[in-house]
Amino acid sequence: MAESPAPPQDGRRWWVLAGACGGLMVLMLDSTVVNLALPALRQDLDASSTQLQWIPNAYLLVIAALVVTAGRIGDIVGRRRAFLGGLLLFGGGSALGGFAQSADAVIAARAVMGAGAAFILPLSLTLVTDSFPGGDRGRAMGIWAAVSSLALAIGPIAGGSLAEIDWRLIFWINLPPVVFGFLVTRWAAPETRDETSERSIDWPGFALLTVGLAAVTIGFAQAEAWGWTSTATLGTVAAGLLTLVAFWHVEHRVRNPIVEFDLFRNKPYFGASAAAFALVGAYWVVMFFEPQYLQDVLGYSPALAGVLILPITLPMVFVSPIADTFVRVLGIRVLMGTGMILGVIGLFVMGRIDGDTSYGVLFAGYLIFGVALGFVYAPMQTAAMAAMPAAKAGIASGVLAMNRILSGALALAITASVFHTALRSRIQEDVTAADLSKSDAHEVEGLANGTASAQAELASQPPRVAEQISSVVDDAFAHALSTTLWIPIALAFVGTILTWVYVRSPDDDPPPPKLPEHDHHKGRFHL
Length: 527
Hints:
Elements: H1 10-45, H2 49-77, H3 79-99, H4 103-131, H5 137-165, H6 169-172, H7 175-188, H8 203-221, H9 223-226, H10 231-251, H11 267-297, H12 302-308, H13 310-313, H14 315-319, H15 323-330, H16 332-350, H17 359-377, H18 380-384, H19 393-434, H20 438-448, H21 452-459, H22 463-484, H23 486-502
Helix pairs in contact: 1-4, 1-5, 1-7, 1-11, 2-3, 2-4, 2-8, 2-19, 3-4, 3-7, 4-5, 5-12, 8-10, 8-19, 11-16, 11-19, 11-22, 11-23, 15-16, 16-17, 16-23, 19-20, 19-22, 20-21, 20-22
């Protein structure tokens, strides 16, 4: 495999690691920071519930559509160049978000950030492995992974604290590490590319994948507003599915497909992909709704909500370094299968809530779910590659990354619509039971959607009426969230079964033939 030029000299390669970690850090922080600021952003920009949902979803959808193609672009035009372009896009999107004066502008900014993240995500690790061909590679990758875990863990605290000052800071905070990563990488990293790779990209497949995913996601995301059985909803989802069928046909006929569907015939890979899709999808649902529940219903400040949600993200910092020990003692299938069972339990506990649930219940659910993430996420790549030929490692890693991110986009679209359907139904029941006036009922619906005008009206109500209205809103939100969580519970349950059936340790099969591979394919994508 011809790659050029030679790795950087010893001093500069550690600067390459620093630059790559700068790019990685903003991605990991962003995956939790933004969700903690959503209630503050909604109030300031008077964002609708649908707009609020699209702030994380636009980001995930663009990454899912682009991440595999972005890695291939890096192989062709140069990995450093593509990584730097990703940083520019991510930084530019962050600036747009910081200046945004409307929710739609924030959504557009998030889409630009997603395009940048699609390049940073695979190429950050590639730059590190290209720069450390010798004995220091393990140490460098350990540092890279540690930065990833640490940023993911502190993200809720950072997001909550920044949102308490000004939600726009969640975007501006990205610029220093982006600028640092750009300048250091441009100075220290040599340009590398795959000189033997065909200089072709599956643009028809990329177009079909993008249109298909967008249509399906939009259809589900708008289902509550359009009506679940409306022509618009069913037509949009059907059009998206037909486009994805066309994508499937195209991928079987091109030389360098975005997705090699035959990969899923590999049983360990299919099992690990199912676990990833189920648990990561559930993670994005939890991280979208729980900060809103903590702040809007239980009344915690953004900063305190960030601290209280740490049991979800912090266990990964402690579980990941010892995951190899667990794998040696228990085996990959037992470890991941146990993690998936814990995920189901954690989600179930989180769903046992009402309008004034104590944090003790939530803490138990958060912690169990956080441990589940550590048990499943750390050995996921090893499990996926258990019987994968080395020549397929690159595209298999890329598809696994796309699968994880896609699960978040689809899970958010479906659960948000289910949530708002359940919310509206519960509000009607509670309003009738409380015998509220028509104007008060309208205010309840406005508060449930987070409108600024409804907040102002509530402040002008007599204390008894205001308390009654707030109680109805809190009960409706808790009921809708409890109902909605049955979707990730079901998803995780199916993922649990598939994990136990298909995942197995590498030692359970004869090793695949050792074929040439890129070293950067041995690492893990994160997010």
